[in-house]
Amino acid sequence: MATQEEKERARKRREKIKDLIEEVGLWNLNKGELAKQHNVSNPIITKDIKFIIKKWLREEDIEGIRINISTGYKKAIRECMGTMTTGNNSEKLNAARTLKTLSDGFTDMLEKFGLKRKIPEQIDIRGQVKELSIKEDFAEFKKIYDGNKKEE
Fold first, then answer.
1. Are the beta carbons of 26 and 65 closer than 8 angstroms?
2. Same domain, 9 and 53
3. Does residue 52 fall inside a structural domain?
4. Which phi and psi angles does 116 have, rounded to 5°?
5. How far is the C-alpha of 108 from the C-alpha of 75, rounded, in Å?
6. Nearest 5°: phi and psi at 128?
7. Which of 75, 76, 77, 68 is nearest to 27 (CA)?
8. Containing H/E element for 137?
9. pLDDT in tens, 25-38
């Protein structure tokens, strides 16, 4: 259980992070730098940011942020698509990488804030597979072929 002093430090840290979010925007935060400044781990900063979003941001604030992110995302996609049709090979490759990064980042953001269900990164499918050697396959084929031949 956290002591009163730890709770007060967390409250002050969160207020500073909230002010920073209002100043530079949620997506311009450097979690690693914040963790160093406040002498805490990156996961603590992530928890703080989630707490701030849930506790302090009003519904209309979240809608405004969503619109800004969506608009920026669409603009970036249009620019990448334009580069992919008019750019040289190197520019096209960079545009494709940027699209992948955009997609991964946007999906990650949606999943982290509960706006999209998280999809497992790896699906494990296990089953029993009958392995046949070429010799067995040929023997099976020959049996069917010979059976068909006798029927003629």
1. yes
2. yes
3. yes
4. -150, 140
5. 19
6. -100, 130
7. 68
8. helix 134-151
9. 777 788 999 999 99
